């Protein structure tokens, strides 16, 4: 399989991400570790343009951000592997990367659930993440059973493609409640900030708040609810992302 040679300054995220590179050209063992601790759903990184750029067509080095839209990360975020029990959420609708519902710790591997962004993957692979919730074959959300996607964050375009825009009548859980509280606290903080400035929210500030709200709008496959029970360590096992070459896991440094 082909390799992508980084064309961006490295390290691209030196304060939050440590990339552990493969020891040789034939070993797909690159991974990323967190350099920071975050609470559940804390902001890890923004998917800014630049360095991100629109991709004319999907490849194993792109991330899907709409029904027919894909982007090139053009950064070390390309080295984040797949896990069925991920430490991160790639919210490509709002162009942010957040800690998962368990939060994030220094030294923890940075992973995300590929089908949360990818509807159909050109290079499927067998996952060996070692999680008790491991889904097995990973080929995109299109090929997964509904029960495999329960309790998993899915981007808006994935939910639309799967016909999952509704929610299960009034279902709720503690994590959804916590998320709403996070938004309320953020709104109060923003109000205080604007009061101190003596002005109203600008377009950028309003967009940030709307982005936070959108995360709560049915982003999980079982409506408002998501799984918050610990399922053991987020084991990485064999580097499934790199074995597949999907989304740049086999990128050469």
Automatic annotation (TrEMBL):
Keyword presence, Membrane: no
PROSITE patterns registered for this protein in UniProt: POST_SET
Protein name: Post-SET domain-containing protein
Top-level taxonomy: Eukaryota, Fungi, Dikarya, Ascomycota, Pezizomycotina
Domain Post-SET residue range list: 123-139
Key word Transferase present: yes
Keyword vocabulary terms for this entry: Methyltransferase, Transferase
Spans traversing the lipid bilayer: none
């Amino acid at each position: 399989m082909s390799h992508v040679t980084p064309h961006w300054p490295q390290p691209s995220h030196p304060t939050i991400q440590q990339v552990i590179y493969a020891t040789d050209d034939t070993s797909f063992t690159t991974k990323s570790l967190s350099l920071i601790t975050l609470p559940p759903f804390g902001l890890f990184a923004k998917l800014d343009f630049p360095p991100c750029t629109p991709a004319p067509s999907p490849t194993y080095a792109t991330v899907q951000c709409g029904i027919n839209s894909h982007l090139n990360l053009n950064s070390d975020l390309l080295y984040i592997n797949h896990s069925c029990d991920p430490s991160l959420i790639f919210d490509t609708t709002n162009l942010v990367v957040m800690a998962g519902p368990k939060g994030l710790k220094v030294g923890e591997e940075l992973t995300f659930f590929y089908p949360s962004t990818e509807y159909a993957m050109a290079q499927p692979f067998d996952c060996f993440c070692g999680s008790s919730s491991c889904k097995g074959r990973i080929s995109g959300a299109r090929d997964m059973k509904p029960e495999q996607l329960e309790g998993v964050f899915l981007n808006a375009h994935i939910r639309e493609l799967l016909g999952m825009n509704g929610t299960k009548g009034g279902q709720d859980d503690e994590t959804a409640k916590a998320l709403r509280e996070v938004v309320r606290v953020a709104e109060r903080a923003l109000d205080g900030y604007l009061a101190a400035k003596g002005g109203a929210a600008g377009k950028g500030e309003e967009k940030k708040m709307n982005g936070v709200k959108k995360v709560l709008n049915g982003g999980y496959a079982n409506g408002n609810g998501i799984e918050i029970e610990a399922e053991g360590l987020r084991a990485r096992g064999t580097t499934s992302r790199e074995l597949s070459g999907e989304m740049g896991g086999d990128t050469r440094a």
